[in-house]
From TrEMBL:
Identification of the protein by name: Cytochrome c oxidase polypeptide I+III
Any one GO CC term of the record: plasma membrane
Designated gene of the protein: caaA
Cellular compartment(s): Cell membrane; Membrane
Protein family: Belongs to the cytochrome c oxidase subunit 3 family.
Top EC class of this enzyme: oxidoreductase
Originating organism: Bremerella alba
Amino acid sequence: MRRDEYQAKFGFALFIASLTMFFLASLAAYGIIRGTSGAPAISLGSFPLSLVASTISMLGVSFAMHKAVINVRRERQARFRRWLITAAVISVVFLIFQSLGLHSLLDMHRAALDEGVTKQFGLMFFLVFIHALHVVGGIAFLSGVLVRARHDAYDHEKHWSVDICALYWHFLDVVWIVMLGTFLLGR
């Protein structure tokens, strides 16, 4: 492994470790607030369906990135670029669903204000918003990979930034599923 590749992968591992700690601390805070507040449980019928639908988009981005990595390793440049473009398009669809979900959470928060219960939906909004910001960062990273891919910067030997980008999207996928599961199970 070359020095630059090693440094990039090591730096990425530290970045993911710090994000994991932040994520786990945030979920612990959500659990404590949810457990100690007198907030009524979120009914499954009132849970924003756009947040559930965005899960399909997030899985689609991870799948497309996985296919991109497979194709760059096999020197299938056209397929590789198509999967990157597919991942980019689906990631924007995810953000659209996230925006709708955030709007719904704000409406739920406003309704809870009238009842004097605000912590639960506010923290849910915060966590979903922070995740969406990380998705925006992932889109920027993916865009950089896509631009370099259009200039034939990757091949079967040198594609570690594609690997790191795919791992970041897989991480976002896992975080999203765990977070959504926590919201649904915490009802």
